[in-house]
Design brief:
Elements lengths: L1 H19 L8 H5 L17 H15 L4 H13 L13 H8 L10 H5 L1 H6 L3 H16 L2 H18 L4 H11 L7 H7 L6 H13 L4 H10 L4 H16 L3 H7 L8 H8 L9
Helix pairs in contact: 1-3, 1-14, 3-4, 8-9, 9-10, 9-12, 9-14, 12-13, 12-14, 13-14
């Protein structure tokens, strides 16, 4: 779960920059690839914990404490954040469609990447691939009952499950290509030409491709950020997957800690932190 949060926080402000450049197409290649230099920090004062992290924790909490009542926990976490007002960047904390779902009483039919960004805990906490697929469906359909959203969330959770249960990166890559996405990308082409999209059918396969091109956890996050687009969500998905394969460096665990919301820390404490005292950001 912390891998997803690291990706989200690292990509939070870069996503703002990407959105600001939509009218011009996208951020420049030279600006995007600066993040590949490890001398440039992943986390700055402009970073924050956004909806990707919040809803990932909602899914995790629903599994470990809530008998998998996903809709209940998604609504509780979402409405708590909505009541906080605008985010650090002066925006709503969620997309307009998700806000309508939170405040309404209907099944959402979004085809966005919001289901895939939050699904990581399902890949970690269930014991068979069939259980993972069924729990993906249950966790996704309340707000994202669309074939593209379900497919994207399932691809992410299944990738995590296969990696954490000992399958090789190469075998998982072939499995995803056979069953979900072709992954016919070129990294430099994405860095030069990728444009913002929150569609699951666009950003999920990009995230999967980036993971398969990575060499270690931090490299995966930096490469995810270097392709632009929906930066925080792509990096969140990559981080959730990369944690299963690489683990997370202690340095990054400590660096992200100041950005994590107080109510999340008790859930993360046992797995990641011996103490949840933290520097306030």
């Amino acid at each position: 779960m912390l891998g997803a949060i690291i990706g989200d926080v690292a990509g939070s402000y870069l996503e703002v920059l990407e959105v600001n450049e939509i009218k011009n197409g996208h951020r420049s290649y030279d600006e995007r690839i600066k993040i590949l230099d490890r001398n440039n920090p992943l986390f700055t004062d402009d970073c924050s914990c956004t909806d990707d992290s919040i809803l990932t924790m909602a899914i995790y909490d629903a599994i470990v404490n809530g008998n998998c009542e996903y809709e209940k926990y998604l609504r509780e976490y979402g409405l708590r954040e909505v009541n906080e007002g605008i985010d650090l960047y002066g925006r709503s904390r969620f997309g307009s469609g998700f806000i309508k779902w939170l405040e309404g009483n209907f099944q959402g039919e979004s085809y966005g990447n919001g289901a895939a960004m939050r699904i990581g805990p399902v890949g970690y906490l269930f014991g068979t691939i069939d259980e993972v697929k069924e729990q993906v469906r249950l966790a996704t359909v309340p707000s994202h009952n669309h074939i593209d959203a379900i497919k994207g969330a399932e691809a992410v959770a299944v990738t995590i499950f296969l990696l954490r249960t000992g399958h090789s990166k190469e075998d998982v890559y072939e499995y995803i290509k056979r069953n979900y996405y072709e992954l016919n990308y070129d990294l430099e082409d994405l860095q030069r030409n990728n444009v913002f999209s929150s569609k699951s059918s666009v950003s999920v396969p990009q995230a999967l491709y980036v993971f398969f091109q990575s060499n270690d956890f931090e490299d995966s996050i930096r490469k995810a950020l270097s392709i632009g687009g929906d930066s925080d969500t792509i990096a969140c998905i990559v981080g959730s997957i990369s944690e299963a394969y690489y683990g997370i460096d202690e340095k990054l665990k400590e660096e992200v800690k100041p950005y994590i919301k107080d109510y999340m820390m008790p859930l993360l404490k046992e797995k990641y932190y011996s103490s949840f005292e933290k520097e306030k950001k």
